[in-house]
Design a protein that fits this description.
alpha+beta, Gyrase A, domain 2, Elongation Factor Tu (Ef-tu), domain 3, six-stranded mixed sheet, 6 helices, 19 strands
């Protein structure tokens, strides 16, 4: 168990390797109740969120979700989050655990009359069932899920318990994030594991979650971006809809798009044993040019992988750089992102951890 954003969370239940491979080959079950869950509603809810977030909610129909960023006036990322539209004037907003208090303070600072925001993190739990066989391995008493589109959701039942079933996730695989009343989430957790145990389903901790999200090149707030990094530098410029109207950070982001980002996030691959870690220096042609933001050994791919934030124009796939590994320089190759494309039906990068 480890501290994560003020929550005590499992780093692993069995081994990171076994849990990682379970997600890729069958399915893994994650407790992600540390994520913040905020309900925003009222006649001006859409307009309010449009003014806070980079992506465009106007075209988001009820029953669908969208990945977006919330930025400061200078374009720096306050957080990345997922917004679920439950009705015309009601939204469920999922934020990062470590940022929940910061996010809610920022959102309350800008909230207009007629719009309310309530924090349901304590009474609404969240678990994720992710993997290529997640659909087939849901327990008896579960609603049909095959017709739920990627980044869509609807109310239903899992093991006979009421749930909001969302086809979203943070592993690169197909599967679900399940919003369930906190008093009953244990029943659902046990039912999923009981049904899937013989088929290779395992409970999975933070180690497997980080490795699978990195293989899918999904960003981790606090590592791959923070308030000093803008969406274009993080490779998330596609979430910025400058044409939707005014929002906090729009003018600064428009200038970044026009001139091009000062830094770029790239993917790196190293030899087995040379595992780049967060904060390690990256050099190009003998000059320090960037820093590793996330790095791990990929048990599924069989070698280490990393994301790095590099100064200047983005390096081309196939170019060679060096990375600091345990006090020495190791060779690394720039590779195409994502490192792994799984069973998720879209390449759109969902949130987070």
């Amino acid at each position: 168990m480890v501290d994560f954003g003020g929550w005590e969370l499992p780093q692993q239940y069995t081994s990171i390797r076994d849990e990682h491979l379970a997600v890729r080959k069958a399915a893994g079950l994650f407790d992600i109740s540390h994520m913040g869950r905020l309900v925003v509603e009222g006649a001006g809810a859409e307009s309010y969120l449009q003014g806070l977030l980079t992506n465009d909610l106007a075209s988001l129909a009820p029953g669908h979700a969208i990945y977006t960023l919330m930025c400061k006036e200078d374009g720096g990322a306050i957080d990345d989050l997922v917004v679920y539209r439950e009705a015309a004037d009601r939204f469920l907003v999922v934020v990062n655990a470590a940022n929940r208090e910061k996010d809610t303070a920022w959102m309350r600072r800008h909230i207009p009359a007629g719009v309310s925001m309530n924090d349901h993190t304590e009474d609404m739990s969240l678990i994720a069932f992710q993997g290529p066989r997640a659909h087939a391995l849901l327990p008896r008493g579960s609603s049909t899920t095959d017709d739920i589109a990627y980044f869509a959701f609807r109310p239903g039942k899992i093991a006979g318990v009421a749930a909001l079933i969302s086809r979203t996730g943070y592993t690169g695989e197909d599967g679900f994030e399940l919003f369930i009343e906190s008093g009953r989430v244990g029943e659902v957790w046990d039912a999923i594991l009981s049904r899937g145990k013989a088929e290779g389903v395992l409970p999975a901790g933070l180690g497997a979650r980080d490795a699978t999200r990195l293989e899918a090149a999904l960003r981790l707030y606090g590592n791959d971006m923070d308030e000093t990094v803008n969406p274009y530098e993080a490779g998330l410029g596609w979430t910025v809809k400058l044409g939707k109207g005014d929002f906090i950070g729009r003018d600064a982001l428009a200038k970044v798009k026009e001139s091009g980002p000062r830094r770029n996030l790239i993917g790196l691959q190293t030899a087995p044993g040379d595992i780049p870690r967060h904060g390690a220096a990256v050099s190009n042609a003998g000059r320090r040019a960037g820093v590793v933001t996330s790095g791990t050994h990929s048990f599924f791919l069989g070698h280490p992988i990393a994301l790095a934030l590099m100064e200047g124009p983005s390096l081309r796939v196939g170019e060679k750089v060096t990375v600091e590994v345990r006090g020495r320089e190791a060779r690394a190759e720039v590779v195409k992102l994502p490192f792994y494309r799984g069973s998720a039906r879209s390449a759109v990068a969902p949130a987070k951890s």
